[in-house]
Design goal:
two-stranded antiparallel sheet, five-stranded antiparallel β-sheet, 29% helix, Alpha-Beta Plaits
């Protein structure tokens, strides 16, 4: 049985009231691949475009999105996120790696918040760079780690 379907096959929020409050952390990763000429232009411009500083703006957008995940995805519990950190790295080549780490002490996990933060940060990078090219590719987006709750996950 799916967790968001009740005994009558109707959509339902998961009842977490009987679960223990534990520290829960999730890390999501999104990748943004640029055409080589765009990657070079971004580096030369200090990762800034006419719209402003690309990565700093994406970090702010990603954190804002993670905090509002419950408004975007049905049945996500509203959470008082205790920490949300987004790191964006583009050391070589044509790909930026965005990692969103979210932490909370709660009865439910923060995987969706981390995935939402990473994806909105990636979309913001696209938006700020689309004047340079529409051949920018977002993906993959994935859960890299989760700790706390019923089981831990760590993917290479």
């Amino acid at each position: 049985m799916f967790s968001h379907v009740d005994e009558n096959d109707q959509p339902a929020m998961v009842d977490v009231s009987s679960k223990a409050v534990t520290k829960r952390t999730a890390v999501a990763e999104a990748r943004v691949r640029f055409p080589g000429s765009v990657a070079d232009a971004l580096r030369e411009a200090g990762f800034s475009t006419s719209k402003g500083p690309v990565f700093q703006t994406a970090i702010i957008a990603g954190v804002m999105a993670a905090k509002r995940t419950h408004e975007l995805i049905p049945f996500c519990h509203p959470l008082g996120i205790e920490n949300c950190r987004i790191e964006i790295d583009m050391p070589d080549g044509d790909e930026a790696v965005i990692r969103c780490t979210v932490t909370v002490h709660h009865r439910t996990g923060v995987e969706m918040e981390a995935l939402t933060g990473a994806s909105i940060a990636a979309l913001t990078v696209y938006d700020m760079c689309k004047a340079l090219s529409h051949e920018i590719v977002i993906g993959p987006l994935r859960l890299a780690e989760k700790h706390g709750g019923r089981r831990d996950v760590s993917q290479p």
